[in-house]
Amino acid sequence: KAGVTQTPRYLIKTRGQQVTLSCSPISGHRSVSWYQQTPGQGLQFLFEYFSETQRNKGNFPGRFSGRQFSNSRSEMNVSTLELGDSALYLCASSSLAGTTDTQYFGPGTRLTVL
Amino acid sequence: AQSVTQLGSHVSVSEGALVLLRCNYSSSVPPYLFWYVQYPNQGLQLLLKYTTGATLVKGINGFEAEFKKSETSFHLTKPSAHMSDAAEYFCAVSETPNNAGNMLTFGGGTRLMVKP
Q1: What is the pLDDT of residues A79-107, one digit of tens each?
Q2: Which residues on A lie below 8 Å from B60 (Cβ)?
Q3: Residue A17 distance to chain B (closest CA, Å)
Q4: Going by C-beta distance under 8 Å and a sequence separation of 6 or more, which residues neighbour residue B70?
């Protein structure tokens, strides 16, 4: 099975712009989660989608949003980019979205905001 | 909310030496615990996980971890370090906010360096 794929792998944007990141989960997986990784804050949970519904959201401002499509692919959007949004954004998928399920991570999208 | 603490942001060992990476958690409910490894410019790869049952969990690449409820710990060990083990390691606890879904809370990570 192909793993979790994320596109693009690298992005450079300027402050005030918006960006959309894409994630394709492992075939058959219905849950997709997003995490932000920065040197200062570490790995932080952004949100989780299951069957096109956002089930959980982390402590991030409303500029961060996401969605999931019927084929389980997910996108996250960040509007009005700030310098502090520079980070590695990781997507993870799991089959059932239960507490014991393993989340499988993609390679990430590295976003640089100038 | 649950939390995870990894003692030691950097650990250095010699090749062939024992690897011990520490993880302590706080949880009001039985925890489900994970160890992930991240190589440079890559995502996270699962090493092992504890859900229920045997408290000594074996993972990939010769790693294992022992769940100790009395110590709220889930330390990762490997008897003999290889150069290829150099990476960053993350301990995580899984929780189900609002009784639905799956959210991982990560520790701060430990960068393992292996000296020849």
Answers
A1: 999 999 999 999 999 987 666 788 999 99
A2: none
A3: 25
A4: none
